[in-house]
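re: ur question from the group chat, yeah i did fold both. here u go
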Amino acid sequence: MNVHLELLRANTPLIDLRSPIEFAKGTFLQSVNLPILNNDERAKIGKTYKHQGNDAAVKLGHRLVSGDQKENRVSGWKEFIEKNPSTWMYCMRGGQRSGIAQDWLEDIGINVSVIEGGYKALRRTSLKILDSVNEDDKRWIILGGRTGTGKTVILNQIASSIDLEHHAEHRGSAFGGFFSPQPTPIDFENRLATDYLRHENQTLFMEDESRTIGRVAIPNTWFHRMQESELVLIEMSVEERIHNIVEDYILTPLREGISRTDLLLSLRSSLLKIQKRLGGDLFREIRNKMDRAFLDPINYGQEDWVKQLLEAYYDPLYDYQIKSKVKRCIYRSDTQGVTDFLSDLESD
């Protein structure tokens, strides 16, 4: 049995003993950061190790983390383990930090398993999972359609789907950012690998995406396979699409507490990203309509600028890109037709 695979598959609670700066670069969703060393302590010990060797570094570590500090850290581990009895713990390579933490817990009568190879081993496992798509026999179905057709909503009704935009915390387009930071590229890959590991159906459904989703990139093996997979297309009127976009990108954020000013500034920033592609005159025209809709909502609606953006930018871009993909299309219909078709494929 591959222990690393099983820990990820089972969503086993994990204590990540690495320093916060290490944890921030990449981890796993089931991990909680309860470091044995904070960033400053780790830096001091690293410098001592470099100049004076391992023994001196270990002695310094025990001096830095002693008394109340040691007691507080052990207490944090103890509390988490008592709430999650199946917990395992790890440091970067499953070495001294894990061993010392394990010894300290044993001193108070708690036995906890340490992951051999630490985070590095889990990360290697994650990368192998991502690369394994070249060898699996799953059928991949990619859901496509113009901007605003509600592809994500449909996929979320299909249990055998993987939501790339959910893992990326971004909706994919220039306007797709949320009011929260995206995960690191490593976090995105680890989330995707874990989701795929737990995927049990022989058919996998995903949304058609560009190579990058915001600032994270779909792994090469995945993107290449997506470009060769069967395609299902949603067809919808421009009026319905405008309604969906206004709901998702404007009304929902406002209901969730985002101020009109902050939302306008965010949308303006997104529009600025595609200014060169729009051209100066069109950019200013759409921006002015956007401003009026937010500053004078009684007399101006959001639909006007959204429609112009779709017809002048997103739809021509889609028409160009779909030319190279349409030969892979196995079905196209409206929302209900596509939903029924995907549900039937899932149950086959």
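okk and heres the other one u asked abt
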Amino acid sequence: MAFSSTAAASTAAAFAAGKKSVLIVNTNGGGHAVIGFYLAKDLLAAGHAVTVLTVGDEGSDKMKKPPFSRFSELTSAGATTVWGDPADVGAAVGGAASFDVVLDNNGKDLDAVKPVVDWAKAAGVAQFLFVSSAGIYTPSDEPPHVEGDAVKESAGHVGVEKYIAEQFGSWASFRPQYMIGSGNNKDCEEWFFDRIVRGRPVPIPGSGMQVTNISHVRDLASMLALAVESPGAAAGRIFNCVSDRAVTFNGLVKMCAAAAGAEPEILHYDPAAVGVDAKKAFPFRNMHFYAEPRAAKEVLGWRSSTNLPEDLKERFAEYASSGRGQKEMSFDLDDKIIAAA
């Protein structure tokens, strides 16, 4: 792809104003894609030049779903959107393109991310950011997870973080957990709404007092944006990219029901006794899984804006308008749990 003279002039003006040119390498699936979308909007609003490279083909069926179906919101604000293979970033973005910052919001292991890192280093990129995962922490008897806690050395994200640290002086890694927000195409709160609006019990493994963390994606994007604007403070740091409040499974059911204007019916069960795999029957890890954003608060001056009860009201309004609550759905695993319980 060749950049137009208008785009080049716009980028030059951005540099003259002290702004940065940022490349976001964005996944084409899963929950992380929406992080890149929100970050692009934040950076554009702050006057930075943004290019979003999405993995794959612009004409694929995946691009008909959010957040990709909303990319016009980015281009209308001045972003450049391209599609291609992260293994050959230069071909995807055009040989004349230059960037101050690259964010990899796609790869989960070194095979996927190393070509992006190597290209960025050879191209003279000043700062490299990586969206990792809080799932790499080893289970702890002393929650919450904080930056510096032990991680699973075999996890692909860990290898990526180590390699980036070897290649860049100015780098940072961000470890998100579960997220909500308009444009997310991976079920989170929708799983609960699906049952609540149909008057079905919500099956919760165990006592329901397991603690987790659910963040609005705007919080994750705002943390990443601060790292772009304060590279010195962010350099060489790991950040738990999460909100600063925990929620229990039972509490989440109650909040979702309140957002839907309904009374919740919670059904607790023992997965082993019922004979179901909790990983398939429930959208979250059946354990305490909670990280805190201590480094972002201390180093970047970041503050969370997630207000889960209010954010879920916003999410239910979009859920209701989508018509999903009226669609035919099967609840085979739920029915097995209900019958056994």
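fwiw on the second one: The chain has 15 helices and 13 strands. Confidence is low (pLDDT under 50) at residues 1-17. idk if thats what u expected
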